Amino acid sequence: xxxxxxxxxxxxxxxxxxxxxxxxxxxxxxxxxxxxxxxxxxxxxxxxxxxxxxxxxxxxxxxxxxxxxxxxxxxxxxxxxxxxxxxxxxxxxxxxxxxxxxxxxxxxxxxxxxxxxxxxxxxxxxxxxxxxxxxxxxxxxxxxxxxxxxxxxxxxxxxxxxxxxxxxxxxxxxxxxxxxxxxxxxxxxxxxxxxxxxxxxxxxxxxxxxxxxxxxxxxxxxxxxxxxxxxxxxxxxxxxxxxxxxxxxxxxxxxxxxxxxxxxxxxxxxxxxxxxxxxxxxxxxxxxxxxxxxxxxxxxxxxxxxxxxxxxxxxxxxxxxxxxxxxxxxxxxxxxxxxxxxxxxxxxxxxxxxxxxxxxxxxxxxxxxxxxxxxxxxxxxxxxxxxxxxxxxxxxxxxx
Length: 400
Hints:
Helix content: 25-40%
Number of strands: 12
Order of helices and strands: HHEEEHHEHEHEHHEEEHHHHHHEHEHE
Distance between the termini: 27 Å
């Protein structure tokens, strides 16, 4: 009977069935963050599932976006008012560009698309709107990632899982952060408490208690990491980022501005919570300065924002710092050596390391974790994490 069902199964389902039966799967995780640097691609070989998951990072690359492509995304990125036609066109166009980057990279790696079992695509977040942000009583939590999975699957010929965040929202979450699901599977420890701190555009963390179970995991966004700093650097100095915090180091912290930033409602709100550049942007920053009638030089503003970022993160992590706790950082903020020094000064008795110490490239971590999420959807059993019920994430797109 099982044989007859298999014979008449749609060929895409037959391929899916065969992938799920393999002892290991080749999954290419794709991540494009709020910094819009480019597309992170992590080719992983994954065995097992759940706490038995084993991941080997075979290849990694970030393919930078062109200025034209970034300009198209920025036309709708984190804006309440956008051109609906542009938004609609970008859903397919972003996927097409990602597919082109995937195919070019596989060619560079001398790997055929047929050798990759699955694409795990995060897509491009263009608007994140949890209820506490939009405050519209008629609607709940919402988020929007562009980069249609069907376009990716058809263009590359590879089975694709995408749009991971909607299931989290459907179950009552805010759609972020999602990396804690992979953090728990890959980085739990029997010897120490661990804080996995991601320093992308937005800072988020996962707390993994020593010998803890999935229901003990705590995860949340914390506020800005690079997003405000990068926006000021781009506007005032024409650069993409403050290399090693050199600009910030040449400024002076303005205590009045620092105090005002630390009093922002999001910083003081209880965990868990999520946010994005929709809240932390130049417009809201200028409104804050105007409200307090403060004029500040660009270098001093950078110094203050860098200190604020370190202070706000450290303050919110404090309840999770116990004896025998280590903090492992990832994301672009790790490259800002001045910021990392400020963070260590704010948490003096806890070692701050990078995820390189756990055997994973810092810049590859999020792309790897979306590959892990895809693997769980294919062959794992959903598990509860913290206050969230058990769920599988990602929508399936076939190549034909």
